[in-house]
Amino acid sequence: MDLLELSSNVTCDVFNGLYLRDGFSVKANYSAVLSTYYSASVSTFSGPADAAQAINAAVAATTNNLIRQLVDAEALTDAVFVLLIVNKVFHKVVIEVDEKGTEAAGAGGVVGITSVPPSFTLDRPFVAIVWNSLHSVNMFTAYVASPAS
């Protein structure tokens, strides 16, 4: 049974969105999974003000303007970020005798401070290991004896 079809006096709306800084992208199959299973779209933004405006407009639209500001552009300005994940649920239940009902809205956002890693110089031999923590498996090991060559 679909949760959204349980009762005629219940309204539930869900919004999911993935926002990427211009110049970054996600693989097509990942975007398809987001769309198919989470009804999420992938959007791009040029900077903090652009990201905040787009996210706040989408959240306001799906909460009947109960939540108008989820993200503050100033708070995003100080961070070097490339990814924002937004989830929002709007829930309205008619429970009063006069059928005005009660509205509640909740929104959550995860600001992925997934920045481009800092650059560093490898000027001596090193070992690199890619470790799968979930399965405790070494996925890849590399030894570089002479980084200069």
UniProtKB/TrEMBL annotation:
<dbReference type="InterPro" id="IPR042178">
    <property type="entry name" value="Serpin_sf_1"/>
</dbReference>
<dbReference type="InterPro" id="IPR023796">
    <property type="entry name" value="Serpin_dom"/>
</dbReference>
<dbReference type="Pfam" id="PF00079">
    <property type="entry name" value="Serpin"/>
</dbReference>
<dbReference type="GO" id="GO:0005615">
    <property type="term" value="C:extracellular space"/>
</dbReference>
<protein>
    <submittedName>
        <fullName>Alpha-1-antitrypsin-like protein CM55-MS</fullName>
    </submittedName>
</protein>
<keyword id="KW-0722">Serine protease inhibitor</keyword>
<dbReference type="GO" id="GO:0004867">
    <property type="term" value="F:serine-type endopeptidase inhibitor activity"/>
</dbReference>
<feature type="domain" description="Serpin">
    <location>
        <begin position="7"/>
        <end position="82"/>
    </location>
</feature>
<comment type="similarity">
    <text>Belongs to the serpin family.</text>
</comment>
<keyword id="KW-0646">Protease inhibitor</keyword>
<dbReference type="InterPro" id="IPR000215">
    <property type="entry name" value="Serpin_fam"/>
</dbReference>
<dbReference type="InterPro" id="IPR036186">
    <property type="entry name" value="Serpin_sf"/>
</dbReference>
<feature type="domain" description="Serpin">
    <location>
        <begin position="84"/>
        <end position="147"/>
    </location>
</feature>
